[in-house]
Specification:
Elements lengths: L1 E7 L4 H4 L4 E10 L4 E4 L4 E14 L5 E5 L2 E5 L5 E5 L5 E9 L2 H7 L9 E3 L4 H13 L7 H18 L10 H8 L7 H7 L4 H12 L3 H19 L4 H7 L5 H12 L3 H8 L26
């Protein structure tokens, strides 16, 4: 016995220009029928919240699936899967496509080489699926945009939910972020972690979808933007604060990556906040407000 609810969509060519569109969503549980063998022309994320079953890819090898877990169904890749016929499983799925899937794959959010991914939990992923399901009501004029936006959210939620990533994130990435403003080479960072530069590159690419150099650069430039926008520190001082002893090199690097020079960025974004800068992240559910004064 099983229960199924699903909806399928046909986004217009204009919506496909958004880069990522949702093609369908479903919620199922119980002793579901076996799927495949088949090959699809789009991506599907199958989220198994509870229960167990199996997956078989093009190599013919049968892999045990135990919830919570994620099945990646990749375009052009034959697959065959199903739940345990006795116990079944709880499943939600989202079909999607678009050129943004290429970038998500390059960043490591979609893993063609790892079709079965153990998850720590599925709460955030199921919440994103729930938003797609609610948007799927008949006659919703925002259907394609709402569901496409939720697919982005789903991919982020699945990335965070991987069982091989701790609650506080990847420890290597945490350590790199902590030391990002020190004038260290990639080799020196690797040595601090008892790794070779090649091992560090592999770890960072798997965790952040980029090279260690780009990961560190993103943190440094982000902090530099904050200092330029919210303080009156000279550009040379900003450069030193984020790990660059040569202000001219920092300015060239900033200009090349940001698209505008540090001085110009300050002119556009500057908001001096003498004594008002806060390092505490505000609660989006209860943002700070200014009390209304009686007139």
């Amino acid at each position: 016995m099983y229960h199924t609810w699903m909806r399928y969509f046909t986004p217009s060519p204009t919506h496909h220009k958004l880069g990522l569109v949702c093609l369908g969503v479903g919620l199922q549980h119980g002793a579901l029928p076996t799927v495949g063998p088949r090959t699809l022309d789009h991506h599907v994320a199958v989220v198994i919240s509870a229960g167990s079953g199996w997956y078989r890819g093009p190599d013919g090898r049968r892999v045990t699936v135990t919830g919570p877990a994620l099945l990646w169904l990749i375009p052009g890749i034959p697959h065959h899967y199903g739940p345990d016929p006795a116990a079944g499983w709880d499943e939600s799925f989202v079909d999607f496509t678009g050129p943004a899937t290429t970038t998500y794959t390059e960043l490591g959010y979609i893993e063609p080489d790892r079709p079965v991914v153990p998850l720590a939990d599925t709460a955030a992923a199921r919440a994103a699926v729930g938003r797609i399901a609610r948007a799927a009501r008949r006659g919703n004029p925002l259907l394609e945009v709402e569901t496409g936006a939720a697919v982005h959210e789903l991919l982020v939620a699945l990335r965070r939910a991987r069982a091989d990533v701790g609650a506080d994130g990847d420890p290597v990435l945490q350590a790199l972020a902590r030391d990002a403003f020190q004038p260290l080479t990639v080799a020196e960072h690797a040595s601090r972690h008892g790794m070779t530069p090649a091992e560090l590159r592999t770890a960072v690419r798997r965790g952040a979808g980029c090279s260690p150099k780009d990961y560190l650069l993103g943190i440094r430039l982000g902090r530099a933007k904050e200092l330029l926008a919210a303080t009156e520190l000279p550009v040379a001082a900003v450069a030193r604060r984020v790990g660059y002893d040569d202000p001219a090199y920092f300015s060239r690097l900033f200009t090349r990556r940001v698209g505008t020079a540090p001085v110009r960025f300050r002119e556009q974004q500057g908001r001096a906040v003498h004594g008002g800068w806060s390092h505490q992240i505000p609660d989006p559910e209860h943002p700070p407000t200014i009390a209304t004064r009686p007139t």
